[in-house]
Amino acid sequence: MPKMKTKSSAKKRFKITATGKVKAAAAGKRHGMIKRSNKFIRDARGTMVLAKPDGIKVIKNYLPNGR
């Protein structure tokens, strides 16, 4: 059987913590900052842990070797 490949886009967007949770950056910060409120920009700073159901989907579909 061929090897299961990791999605290249997921490699750049997600990191898996030591306990198996998935970390991701906030959405909506790529461009168009002028129209966003300062509160939105401040709250979207840094990374966050995805909810458990979302994390499971990411690992199963995009990062099969990341466990």
Short key terms for the protein model shown above:
alpha+beta, 15% strand, 67 residues, 3-stranded antiparallel beta sheet, 3 helices
Detailed description of the structure:
- A 3-stranded antiparallel beta sheet has the order 1-2-3.
- The protein has 3 helices and 3 strands.
- Helix content is 33%, strand content 15%.
- With 67 residues, the chain is an alpha+beta fold.
- The model has no long low-confidence stretch (mean pLDDT 94).
- The longest helix is centred in the last third of the chain and has 10 residues.
Short recap of the structure:
Strands 1-2-3 form a three-stranded antiparallel β-sheet. It is α+β, with helices and mostly antiparallel strands.
Shape descriptor: elongated
**Poorly predicted runs:** none
Radius of gyration over C-alpha positions, nearest whole angstrom: 14 Å
Distance between the termini: 20 Å
Q: How many strands, which pairing sense, and closed or not: the largest β-sheet?
A: 3 strands, antiparallel
Report the order of strands and helices.
Answer: HEEHEH
Number of helices: 3
Query: Strands of the biggest beta sheet: in what spatial order?
Result: 1-2-3
Helix/strand/pairing class, anyone? alpha+beta
Question: What percent of residues are in strands?
Answer: 5-15%
Number of strands: 3
Q: Helix fraction?
A: 25-40%
Average per-residue pLDDT, rounded, comes to 94
